[in-house]
Fold:
Amino acid sequence: GRWLFVPHFLLFLWPALLAAAAAGVVWTAHEAFDLSLHRVVRYAALSGYAALIAAEAVGLGLFHAYPPHGTDGLRELAGELRAQVSAGEPVFVTPPALAPSLAHYFDGDIVGLPEDFDLRRIYLRYNGAEWQRRSTALINAVVRPGTRFWLVYRPERDEAGGLLLYLRSGYKLTSSTPHEFATLYRFEVP
Structure:
């Protein structure tokens, strides 16, 4: 409610809106005040550029003052990952719908459990046992002995915490950091 607009959505719409407004101003000024078309176009273009720069500056200021993930711990969780994850260490995310938000702040290898996030397949039927089987199979296929991996975890899909129980029994849990966005676990592979 604090933003005038969401910058990444208005990025494509704003130039077209300004062009339409500028065309209206040019036509009105040319007809009403009998000014030369060349002069009106120049003033309208300069005014449009000034409005574009001012609006973008205000939008960026609001975006940084009130970020979309300002209070849910996502930026802190991603900062922890950026500081501690070494190249090649996988970061598993469950549910996988969290992956696009995390990818905004973290550039490492993100793997959705039981599969990567696909916007076309959000509302699939859910089977808890199948979800856990596919998730553990994927983790076992990706991790290598003597390495470590990370889990960004929310319990919504994990019936009775079965995935966490499985991981704790087969891998060494070395850290656990709760955030409002999700809990971050670090495991070492024996």
Notes: Strands lie at 91-94, 110-112, 148-153, 172-178, 183-188. Helices lie at 7-33, 37-65, 74-84, 99-103, 128-142, 162-170. The chain has a mean pLDDT of 82. The CA atoms of residues 154 and 182 lie 5 Å apart.
